[in-house]
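Need residues for this backbone.
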């Protein structure tokens, strides 16, 4: 009798673990909260003004049971490589390239790239090379808006030539419609601790300068640009599973 009970117990444990594995390996309706980092190389007209930049941001997506993905994200872009920086403030600089501050001293001033990329996203996950049906190759398309400008930072904020409206005449603020394509790998772990995506993203944007007048060129400035970004992107995911997927049934 004891042997029979042991065999039955082993049998039930085997059936239960099999059902649990099937539940974990099934494709699930899942909410995905994520944070990400990217390192991008500019191209097109954007490469004439900026060097390589980084981006940090996050967003939310939904993965359906059929592995379709849709959601939104927002990313802050930043970099410290401004090309031709000496010519940007040429009108308010000395012959040696220095700017005189409000105290009559050489100003300690820096230029940085600043911007954002925000978009709506739609894509598909293909469960290949993954440990379960919720992991695999992902292809995501996005449509949104790209904006970038030159940010001036100076010690003690005592440069009258770069205050308020004067600064806007030099920062080259530009924005416009953007589209992006992402190809990579997404992993949603059965144990729910290791969830991430990694891959490459390519962005094309049709931007326009939003400042009516360029103080350096001393003329109206409404130039249109074709901007490109391409780079490596990695993100950490917090999955939110539907309640029905949290239940395990034992027979």
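Answer:
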């Amino acid at each position: 009798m004891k042997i029979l009970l042991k065999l039955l117990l082993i049998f039930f444990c085997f059936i239960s673990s099999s059902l649990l594995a099937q539940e974990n390996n099934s494709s699930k309706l899942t909410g995905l909260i994520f944070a990400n980092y990217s390192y991008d190389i500019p191209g097109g007209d954007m490469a004439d003004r900026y060097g390589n930049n980084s981006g940090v941001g996050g967003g939310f997506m939904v993965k359906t049971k059929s592995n379709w993905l849709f959601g939104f994200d927002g990313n802050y872009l930043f970099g410290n490589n401004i090309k031709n920086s000496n010519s940007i403030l040429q009108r308010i600089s000395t012959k040696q390239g220095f700017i005189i501050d409000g105290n009559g001293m050489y100003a300690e001033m820096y230029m940085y790239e600043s911007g954002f990329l925000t978009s709506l996203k739609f894509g598909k996950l293909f469960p290949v090379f993954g440990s379960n049906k919720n992991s695999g190759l992902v292809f995501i398309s996005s449509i949104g808006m790209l904006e970038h400008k030159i940010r001036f930072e100076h010690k003690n904020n005592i440069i009258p030539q770069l205050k308020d409206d004067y600064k806007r005449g030099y920062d080259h603020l530009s924005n416009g419609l953007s589209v992006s394509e992402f190809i990579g790998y997404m992993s949603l772990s059965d144990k729910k601790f290791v969830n991430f995506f990694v891959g490459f993203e390519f962005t094309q944007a049709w931007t326009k300068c939003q400042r009516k007048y360029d103080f350096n060129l001393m003329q109206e400035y409404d130039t249109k640009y074709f901007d490109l970004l391409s780079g490596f992107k990695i993100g950490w995911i917090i999955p939110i599973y539907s309640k029905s997927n949290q239940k395990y049934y034992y027979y």
